[in-house]
Amino acid sequence: MNILLLFVIIPLVMLLALWGCRNLTQVRATMVTGSTALLALSAYLTVEFISLRNGGNSEAMLYCDSWSWYEPLNICLSIGVDGISVAMLLLSSIIVFTGTFASWRLKPMTKEFFLWYTLLSLGVYGFFISTDLFTMFMFYETALIPMYLLIGVWGSGRKEYSAMKLTLMLMGGSAFLLMGILGIYFGSGATTMNIHEIAALNCIPTATQYIFFPMTFIGFGVLGALFPFHTWSPDGHACAPTSVSMLHAGVLMKLGGYGCFRIAMYLLPQAAEDLAWIFIILTTVSVVYGALSAISQTDLKYINAYSSVSHCGLVLFAILMMTKSACTGAILQMLSHGLMTALFFALIGMIYGRTHTRDIRQMRGLMKIMPFLAVGYVIAGLANLGLPGFSGFVAEMTIFVGAFEVNDIFHRTVTIIACTSIVITAVYILRVVGRILYGEPENEEHMKLTDATWDERFTVICLVICVIAIGVAPMWISNLINSGVGDVLVNINR
Amino acid sequence: MEQSIYILALPLLSFITLALIGKKLPHKVAGIIGTLSLLATTVLAYVTTASYFLAGRNADGIFAEAMPYNLTWLPINETLSIDLGILISPISAMMLVVITTISLMVHIYSLGYMKGERGFQRYYAFLSLFTFSMLGLVVATNIFQMYIFWELVGVSSYLLIGFYYTKPAAIAASKKAFIVTRFADLFFLIGILIYGYYMETFSFTPGETALAAAGTVLPTALMLMFIGGAGKSAMFPLHIWLPDAMEGPTPVSALIHAATMVVAGVFLTARMFPLFIEFAPGVLHTIAYIGAFTALYAAIVACVQTDIKRVLAFSTISQIAFMMVALGVCTGSDPHEGGLGYMASMFHLFTHAIFKGLLFLGAGAIIHAVHSNEKSHMGGLRKYMPVTHITFLIACLAIAGIPPFSGFFSKDEILAACYAFSKPMGLFMSGIAAMTAFYMFRLYYLIFWGKSHYEEQLALYRSGNIAHEPHKPHEAPMTMTVPLVILAAATCVAGFIPFGEFISSNGHAYAIHLDTKVATTSILLAVTAIVIATIMYIKPGRRITRVVKVVLREPIRAAYHRFYMDEAWLFVTKKIIFNCISRPIAWFDRHVIDASLDLTAKGTQWLGALIRPLQSGNVQTYCVYLLSGALMILLLLLYLN
Q1: In chain B, positions 579-598, which contact chain A (CB-CB < 8 Å)?
Q2: Which of A9, A258, B392, B524 is 20 to 30 Å from B129 at the Cα level?
Q3: Each residue's pLDDT tens digit, B599-608
Q4: What is the pLDDT of residues A103-151, one digit of tens each?
Q5: Which of B138, B157, B135 is nearest to B37 (CA)?
């Protein structure tokens, strides 16, 4: 059996097991077992993949398989992974695993929460292993729908409004995406849905590409928080429960970047080349605009949502530079942003769970009250502002050096503009750290609060270790990604 | 040379240990772990430096750079990769000695100074982190490694300035220091990007072909890198963070904000010196002018400050500017023909680190004794703190440029280099050197002479005017006085080191010789300045002092407020960036972009509401619709036929 199928089978088994669970202990046991299995599986896959590559296997995709689903439309369940998807699978597993611990004490309806949570992760895993346009789209939708319920039911604040807004905007994106996919399918002669076969055919007329590239790119771009389609992000994150925010910012937003790269750029290379400038401008705006908006926010989650807009903007920005190093940097940034933001949202959730406010004006001196969480927050902040030794630095530097390889005045200018985000990021991170963590506690109520529980500590420590691991020893992961990026770019630069 | 890896490994290890389990350790154990690991590091650094210089010169008559370690950390593309390693060159060997020595002194001193402080272990952990980063910076094998450690020293500085994290001033200062230097680092980064792309390497020695093809690109890149260096080294107008950084514990100010981190910009310029001198002499001279202006500005401000640490901070800015000027006035790479400034700059860096470290540690002992930074709480302390008094006086004489103390020798070389560059520059810098002597002795007299604040308070207490008996100032404990004495001894002898034998602009040995004309002038100027300071400040309330205060009231006020540079920056950041850019963008996002989406949603709802009455559920209405529809189709058919 193909090892990749396990990424779909394990969540399915988890769903069935959860359905049968009678009490909280069983639910927790199922989730821990399942997510640990997934984590072990993706770690195993990573090691195997690297050793295969080192063994000289240089095929574009490994572990390929295909089963026909619906002959008339050439829909297959085709699977396969390259360096990029392996990295993404690893990221997803880490976030799903830590997210489980972050929602350890979630109430009410714990069982139902985890049912939807597992379904969401099923969609994410399915998306990353598929190589068939239709199957990818199907898994993509599978990942989006549970989000509505997870926010709408278990969220806080204006949760119905936010859930509705988020779902509608993403569905709007999906509509574009569906058209894009159909355009690609019929444009390439309606013979196959497999992305590698379509790429090999390379026969979509340029005029068709001009229509469907923007559609596909925007379709995925909505999920990747592309300006001006990013406004679901602040509201959505603000109202989502902790682990959903983690999964959403950590993994789901990566589907956008991944799709833009794997589908829009890979399959419509001509249009990508010619129309890139429009999207480069939009993503540059995202990077700076997101960071500047974050400076004047007062809600912790809004700050991080805008920060995500900025960082995910950098992902799309780097992809559009179309150099190997910039694209490697983009995937590294996806990984790094996924881990850092998950860490941030986890910490914010934990702080919110104690203080019952996310308003930075109402908190002060948390370092004295909850030192563990506060130190975690400082570490997350330093990682976020791109300090060497954390993953963000590696990703940003790879992107900037890669983007600088494009030798013309337009690309140079936007790169320098994007670079300014490293200063703006420092401003909004240190503002929050200085405001809420330092100083003397002012609120009497806050003095009674306790520090992190064991499950919370576990979540934070796991994520911090991952962020530092990439930051200190980036070579292996960079090489892993580099191999996959090369194969995709060959098609673009053809 | 293989042992050099432990110079980096030991402080890192001690940081990791203290960061992870420090909280559970008693204060004493944590302090001893930090100090011992640093002692070992210092020994290793001395051994490395000694063996490097003892190995002798190569066939070309220079000390060849040694690179015992260099490994690829992150490959970026076919030509560029980020390497990490250790490169020992004359200047990095010198820096190793400076950093480990001052750091060791600070470690020992802090055992006394920080005794009983909350977060003692954290303090030592951060000190170790800083030492690790600073050492990594000076042994960098390439510009990118330098940038990596550059950022790390920045964050260690941030953490240490904000050590007293409950104090609002410390929080603000740490934030300011990080953001201002980060802003400068942006230019540094862009400079590195340009450099890497056109030189096809991040190493300090690009290939010949790349250099030949560089044109105006290389000067641009070097200028941008210098801006990064100007941020760390507090050159005008990026100096604003340094005076505020004095909110950190005083030993930290001695280590980071006087002796080591703030000279990183000078070190960077010296590191890139061969490229500067050959391809960008214009940029180098610009640096000289920026440095000269900064030196003047900081010296004026230092003359009127009342917080003793601020006086020292501005004096640091002024002295670093001297080093920058020395580099900037170089016109050739031969020390005999225009390259003297390079050696002078490094020499001054070396001596300054020692006597400025001493001044700060002395200031720490004083603050420790009187529990205040303000000069009004001091005065007459020479009776109570003899050791501190003598060592502080030695440092003051050194910085004022009085022989035989170290500062005289290095400053003299700088002035000689300035005179060689141009007469006005030489005169200008001599004048600033005289100002240095003046403000340092003003500080000295205000602290150690004059009326004792303690005695005044005691008199008031005895006469029943104040309720509490004032604290009697006391000499600092041994852990604090021993480093003072060691550094004072070093200040006395450092000037006699034949520095040019080890470091010079082209690597060849250079015999330092005093230029009698320059030396006489500067000694005369310094003595005059000291005499003036003595007349004005040896006793409080001298008539001349009052007259000066009245005559120069407005300039003094402006200088006291540092010529409103902080206000100018605050105006740009707060009023323009925060209020005029960030706020409107946030508003725009909510009220235009998001609102337009909400509007679309509202529009859809409105449309839905519009046609909803059609589905009323009333059968009769449906019948009417059905019949009228049928009728219309019928009429249409009839009409078409």
Answers
A1: 581-583, 585-586, 589, 593-594, 597
A2: B392
A3: 888 898 899 9
A4: 888 878 888 888 999 999 999 999 999 988 889 999 999 988 888 888 8
A5: B135
